[in-house]
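Following up on my earlier message about flavin-adenine dinucleotide. Here are the inputs again, as you asked, copied directly from the submission form:
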Amino acid sequence: MSGAPSSVPTNGDVPPDRADVAVIGAGAAGLMAAISAGRAQPGRSARVVALDGAKTLGAKILVAGGGRCNVTHHAVDERDYAGSTAPAIRKVLAAFPVARTVEFFAEFGVELKREETGKLFPTTDSARTVLDALLRAAREAGVSLRHPWRVASVAREGDAFRVVSAEGETILARRVILATGGKSLPKSGSDGAGYGFATAFGHTLTSRVIPALVPLLLPDGHPLRELSGIAVDAEVRLVSSTGKVLTKTTNAVLCTHFGLSGPAILDISRHWSLARFDDPGAKLELSFLPPTTPDALDAQMMATSVAAPRETLASFTRTRLPERLMRTLAALANVDPATTFRQLSRDARKRLVRTLGAYVVEPTGDRGFPHAEVTAGGVPLAEVRLESMESRRMPGLFLCGEILDVDGRIGGFNFQWAWASGWVAGRSAGA
Ligand SMILES: Cc1cc2nc3c(=O)[nH]c(=O)nc-3n(C[C@H](O)[C@H](O)[C@H](O)COP(=O)(O)OP(=O)(O)OC[C@H]3O[C@@H](n4cnc5c(N)ncnc54)[C@H](O)[C@@H]3O)c2cc1C
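Thanks, got it. Here's what our run produced:
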């Protein structure tokens, strides 16, 4: 087959048996990679085929941000990510900054609005408009989209790659882009198969490949599980066995019937999971009255007992803690919430300070990949050339998106990584 198809073939069309570029995985990173590969040589019409095992494309884009798709964040830099080294992440992000994302979507009629948190969403509040824009961009870039087309194997054959589907169809491609994602939300089709393709080409994986941005489980009968549905702003700290604060974050914590969720918990989950391996004595502490530290809280309570001796725990926390949570914490500290500060013994005050300001939770685990938004770990960035995302192990192979060892915090950072790394990989593979 020669030349690019004039429009995106729908399912059932005969696939090209030869392609310049085959993109494996048409999620966020793969679609962007296919678009940039298609655009890489305008007029020459590189034959770009994007293959995806899913029946319905873009499952993760559609569920993202509660169906509104948090496309990116107004300020993105390497400190918003973990995994590979900061300079490596910075280099890739710099090649396709947030302004380019905004411009790209605007080109297809998707205006983005910035919310108070700095997150950018489509003004339509609908993830569908984001997916439609990507599909239109792919069509206009001459990309041939094939799905469901589950890749079963990919192997080097002479100066090309033989890509074979689960049904036995074959595509010979000069270049291959691996954009198969990680293992989060496996029912969407991202089940980690791409790791097998990468390692078969000589790549390694980080020693841990774990769920990230994932809720944490608390043991049966834990008092916070009884408060299912209650959300509170809290500081969550991961403290090493030697007492050092390894990382901390302040945001909403949501009590659920299984344990804890909410952005603060999701953001710290990958750090907690890794600490379980590396420093089993590390602990997770919640401070329910941020930004107050335990010492400052103690001082504040002492001052209140002088200035307002009739203040009670209930009145002291009224505007800051949901009442049910306050009652649970008071019970845990063995303090009657109606006790006035004047009556409060030193011991009782210390117990309250510990419970309100440094409450230790001991999760039994996380909810696993089916409930994780992203994967921590994967192919180290050190194994790709950052200016092109080409593999250092196999010329002609490119990698982008979540398959790589880069994971962002909540806020649109993971999509920005997908857009940036996908753009670079596609531009280079299509050139
Ligand atoms: C519930 C949820 C909400 C999220 N919300 C946000 C958000 O609002 N903002 C944000 O920035 N990030 C969000 N994320 C994270 C974001 O979706 C991912 O970081 C991003 O989708 C990763 O893009 P990717 O293309 O690398 O991988 P994926 O999106 O996982 O795409 C990989 C694709 O490869 C395909 N594939 C895998 N193996 C094969 C194979 N063997 N053959 C063919 N195809 C294959 C899969 O079907 C899939 O379509 C969310 C994630 C989840 C799960």
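One observation from looking it over: The pocket of flavin-adenine dinucleotide is lined by residues 24-30, 51-54, 60, 63-65, 69-70, 150-151, 179-181, 184-185, 189-190, 193-194, 373-374, 401-402, 412-415, 418 (CB under 6 Å). Hope that helps, and feel free to reply on this thread.
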